[in-house]
Structure prediction request, 207 residues.
Amino acid sequence: MSSISFIGLGGMAHAVAARAVSGGHSVELIGRDQAKAKGLAYELGAGATAGTFGAVPAGDIVVLAVPYTSAVPVVAQYGDALAGKVIIDISNTFNADATALVTPDGTSGAQEIAKAAPASAHVVKAFNTVFGHVLVQERPLDVLFAGDDEGAKANVSAFIESLGLRPLDVGGLEMARWLEGIGPLLMGLARNGAGTFDIALNVDLPG
Prediction:
């Protein structure tokens, strides 16, 4: 199993990290609030540890679990500490009322993060199409992901599968904008047609 580092201590970090611990991975929690990181590590148990913000993450895979408004500055601050890492961007890029994306046409949050990351790091977009409270229910779910490096995508796919989830590759990192666009779509569905946020996007594959 892999060593997975999480930069960010919010609900999504907790949800993915909990499944990672259950999947047998070594988990490192990193945040500016060291006490909160230690508290989350203690809650998760199974040898989860608290790392130091700004230091080289222990994991080969780094889950960037911060709001998009903070993501690029955090990656830029880390700089070469992320060299050679697979960075999973789980952020959503919609506006305050979840009706539009804040990124300009022709790009995505994941692509902007990739620009800020070291050249040897590889960004993969994943998990943003699943609500955190649904993720912790341990239901079988589909996780759509996108990235440019085939090796990094293979690692992320294996990680997703180890969490009891089904990985579905949608293509290169240019597809991240459309994955990010699913955020407002799910929010609109939850508020209207579904009438509940206890929903998940699943793909029906014939056979």
